[in-house]
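hi! just following up on the protien thing from before. the input was this:
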Amino acid sequence: MSFLDSCDVHDWSIYLTPGAVERQLGLFCLGAGEQTHGAAAAPERALGCHALVWIKEGRGRLLHGPDRQLYEVRAPALLTLFPGVVHGYRPTTRWRQAWTLLGGSATAALASLGHLDVSRPVRQYADPRAVDRAFTRLLRVSTQHNAVQLTGALYDLLAQVAPAQDDGVAARLAEVACTPMSIQEYARVLGLTVKELRDAVRRTTGSTPHELVVTTRLSYAKVLLAEEDLSVAAVARRVGYDDPAYFSRLFTARVGMPPITFRRSGSVSGRISSL
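and the predicted 3d structure came back as:
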């Protein structure tokens, strides 16, 4: 029987202190547990880290932010709490919840991608099964002292609770990225304004259309260098660069080695072709 599907949840918690190596993973769990709250207001407070609170059962409100705004909560719902931001529970029925505390350098990138969004502290879910499974796994792994599994469980949970915002624009841009065009031309091909293109790419990748084009071209260039017997000049043209010297400088700056060196030591194929 899983933690979240048991009929009677017994309050329990575990608090973790990641070591230096665990912190190098970029994302780590600082605590996890399950609780039930009665229909009474909880004291207001601010955490020192991020937290995800999965409301499995109950209704009420979340007080959040310096303006003490009240957000409606109706299970199944996820509360996302932020370091230094005041919050308070205002349940009107018993709340049955699971929670986890998380920290690390990766939280900044997760915020940029919308997985941690201070403007949306409450999210409702019509189909909570995937979130239930992810939280159940996290709670189980939190007691097993395996840092990599726990980080993996955190990422799985964050992927499941993320708002649906992948409209396919980034994938469509990647499909045409090796065709030399301006950002305005890419937007026109995709039937978007430049602002719509920028906003869509940022929601999905946390980046810009220009950066997505460059990284897509370099990724394809790696495939060609590793798997095809093409000259560097031919590879440059295939990924959208008419100037092989510019392509080589860009590849070297981004990848950390020249294209010919990548071909020899940066891939498993070991192919060697002429420049």
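DSSP finds eleven helices and ten strands in the chain.
Residues 109 and 206 are 8 Å apart (CA to CA).
cheers
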